[in-house]
Amino acid sequence: MGITTTPPEASVLQFAAWQSAADESFWHRLASFKLNTQRLAEHPIPISGFFAPCSHPQVPSHLQLLLESLPPDTADMNDTAVEVHSNRNRLPVPGILYNTNTLESFQALDRQQLMSEATQQIWDDICSGRAEENTDLLNRFLVISYADLKKWTFTYWFAFPGLVMTPPATIASSQPASEVFNKDEAAGILAACTEWRALPSGASSTAFLLHITLNSDVRARPLKDWAIVQQDGGKVVLAFYDPCHLATNPGWPLRNLLALASVRWDVTRVQVLCYREKRGQVDLEHCPVFDVALPSLPEWKEVKDVPAAVGWERNLRGRHGPRIVHLASSMDPIRLAESAADLNLKLMRWRLLPSLDLVRLASTKCLLLGAGTLGCQVARGLMAWGVRHITLIDYGRVAMSNPLRQSLFMHEDSLNGGKLKADAAAENLKRIFPGVNAVGVQMAIPMPGHAVGKDEVAGVLEDCRRLKEMIDEHDVVFLLTDTRESRWLPTLLCANANKIAINAALGFDTYLVMRHGAGPHVTPGSSASAENPRLGCYFCNDVVAPLDSTANRTLDQQCTVTRPGLAPIAAALAVELAVALLHHPQGLLAPADKEASVLENTEHPLGILPHQVRGFVAHFAQIVVMGHAFNKCTACSSIVVMEFRERGMEFVLEVLNRPNYLEDLTGLTELLSATHSMSLEWDDDTEEADDLEL
Length: 694
What we know:
This protein is α/β, with parallel strands linked by helices and 694 residues long. The chain contains 23 helices and 25 strands. Residues 1-8, 75-82, 554-558 and 686-694 have low confidence and may be disordered.
């Protein structure tokens, strides 16, 4: 290829660099897209940028990224293009986003290779003629980015690939359009441009032809009509929507448009109108017209390789380098808290737990009976799993000794007699995470063995009614109270309503965490079978009815005295058991899994789903236990549930006042009587004694 020198009277055509502007809504949308759709993938993502012709003589039009620039979360990043709706003030431009997982990956991107790939696409579109059909293809851009979603910091770098013409295009003359065209031509251009901008094609085709006939009639035509208008005679002006505001330089989109004119139309001279507006119409005083000399066609066609390209944007310091945007300080604190709270859960779904159902967890309503040591830990564990509806029931007040062991309380909560535990716990949950719907309810739970006086009947019955309503309204009930008998009525109500009940109980250095089985009257078609018998409840191992466990006891027996590390362990297991049960396809009726080796793979993503976990902190050990429902259980057996359904709160009141009533009702009295009347005879085996002597 020969060397062509620039004539001394001509000057090299220089293009004003395009400037980017990413709206805050785009970064929020990118964060959501990264968490929910892209995850660990680093595939190129099709996006759309938007711009409009310059409308102010001192301010250029930027290429903008907006909320709708990214595809929807459900889109396939490899196959689905971005669907956008354009209008005259938002002209779409196709782009590609490379969003990396780490800052190191961002810095390691081969920018030269990415630019070459984008340039290849533009060159192919020019040579094939596709760019004449769709001029947006000439304005392809790319963005590389890294989203630090912990700090809400986004590092990014735009590139607007522009073909480098060798030798460069030159300017023979440059004048405002108002001085280039006569009055009739100017009026025709104004009418033709207005008509073009109003057409649907005018909102998507950012370059067009102005055909000026010999009698000064002007028509706007698409680029593909170049050969036709040449045959018709007259003058042809190449026009493009120019984002630049400078009088002496055209905008960046003209660079690739001139390459198309040289390659496709075999022209060496072309008149270019930089279309700019004022109040929504072309402003001929603000629109420069350049008479451009192009390289000869053979020199371009002999080039087998793709021309070089430039276009990496400079940062705010005027240097070649990425830009950084910090959004943490500008975001609403509650929205920040919600995004941060869900971050760990959404990261789980990327690789470790794709089946995690965050929607179900967020909509699950949990009722915590007890806002003490266990209740505080369970509430915090549930929030960490994404549960957003938590109700706490407790009758007590925050004591001076509580804040050390009960994680939702501060010393201030125990002053002046102490705040109500349920209210203080709910209030502090909201302080930890404003997005939680936490409610505290002060209420005593009626208990067997605690007789009810005549003056107390109305209040106790009201407590029973309220407790039943709340259990019916919630999905999961946690039994976390201090005494055994306080768990009886909630267990009965859960069995009656077929609610998930998770029980956690503490000894000094032992704990029990278990899930109750379904009630004896499950829905038709879902009843337990011989192969999958109904699992027991907290009271199924008892052969006596629950009684008053606090009477005639010393202080250490009245309080829950445990090793400090016990409650967090048991509470965490209770939460994990509930979450696993919510993800099991059979839910409440899920069979109990046996203990498995830690080296074995589990069937379910969240691991085995046991019935009971019994822990022994003194031995740093725990075992998995399964127990079937007892047909004489004082809380969940069929006869007890049926009696409650028939007699309602009258039945509950009789249980509270008659300590032996449940034993009589279920047949435990007869069973115990028969056991006590049995006579056992011991056989003195002399042979065994002789063996021992040996």
